[in-house]
Amino acid sequence: MRIATWNVNSLRTRVERVIDFLDRSGTDVLAMQEIKCRPDQLPTAPFEEAGYEVVAHGLDQWNGVAVATRLPVEDVRVGFDGQPAFGDPPKVEARALGVKVRLPAGTRPSLTVWSLYVPNGREVDHPHYAYKLKWLARLRTEAATWLAEAPEALTALVGDWNIAPEDHDVWDMAAFEGATHVSPAEREAFAAFAADGWVEATRGRADNYTYWDYQKLRFPRNEGMRIDFVLGSPAFEAAVSGAFIDRDERKGKGASDHVPVLVDLDL
User: Fold this and answer.
1) End-to-end CA distance of the chain
2) What is the pLDDT, as a whole number, of residue 107?
3) What pLDDT is recorded for position 106?
4) Is the pTM of this model over 0.85?
């Protein structure tokens, strides 16, 4: 089976591209970020016609996460326990959605996919940066609990992590001097998940950037960043048979600034 994650940068704007991608790629479960709409605003009809159910968590025109699946949904979790808030007044943003789906008979009982949109951080001296680190720390605590409670479970933490963990995950480290996404604290926060047992499923299997800014001809110049990842439980990693970053999805009119990241599982 195939799962994918994609920051679509407005689902209503790009629903046709998303449906085309699902049809072309044969993806069974797609986690989406930055959908920028409430569940009642979702363009569900095209997904239903394509054979997918959509579960979404969105509060307004910002942020928002969703999962489209052609496998039966067994459970949905909106946010994770203790998820930090941000703003004035503080609000728990729509940045995390966990969906458990039932797998085909004779394979495994279920798969849980968390669609995650990690806060950007903005600037290293901005309150949003402290919020980002707090958000990641709390997610790590919760995710460690999930692993401890069900080490044999197929679980994946997927999405836009807004972190480039290694120097070659950006086109030029000099251009990011003193910036977010590459700071030591952010990289340490990302690495902490590996220390707890989560395995990034695409590294070494599919190596490419996953994001190119719309400005300054970043995509034609291939001045990108690798910030979208699939972190799997040990059982999930054991089932991974391949991965792919769909760079071509950044081409053409109306493209998102991110591209889909796909992982195949042999169940």
Assistant:
1) 7
2) 87
3) 86
4) yes
Q: Provide the number of structural domains found in the chain.
A: 1
The three-state secondary structure class of 46 is helix
pLDDT at position 147: 96
Identify whether the C-beta of residue 218 lies closer than 8 Å to the C-beta of residue 224.
yes
List, for the chain, all residue ranges whose pLDDT scores fall below the cut of 50: none
Residue 68 sits in a domain whose CATH number is: 3.60.10.10
Provide the 3-class DSSP secondary structure of residue 42: coil
Query: What's residue 109's pLDDT?
Result: 87
Please tell me the distance from the alpha carbon of residue 75 to that of residue 249, in angstroms, as a whole number: 30
Q: Which residues pair with 132 in a beta bridge?
A: none
3-state SS, 125-157, equals CCHHHHHHHHHHHHHHHHHHHHHHHCCCCEEEE
Residue whose pair of structure tokens reads 């605003």 in the numeric block:
41
* CA gap 62, 9 in Å, rounded: 10
Q: What is the 3-state secondary structure (H, E, C) of 81-98?
A: CCCCCECCCCECCCCEEE
- Which domain range does residue 236 map to? 2-265
Q: Which residues face 261 on adjacent strands?
A: 5, 245
The whole-number pLDDT of residue 30 equals 98
203 three-class SS = coil
**Which pair of structure tokens corresponds to residue 248?**
């071509």
With b for 16 or more beta-carbon neighbours within 10 A and e for fewer, the 155-182 pattern comes to bbbbbbbbbbbeeebbbeeeebeeebbb
CB atoms inside a 10 Å sphere around CB 76 = 13
- List, in order, residues 6 or more apart from 75 with CB less than 8 Å away: 98, 99, 100, 112
| The predicted structure's pLDDT at residue 214 | 97
The answer to whether residues 2 and 24 touch, using CB atoms and an 8 Å cutoff, is no
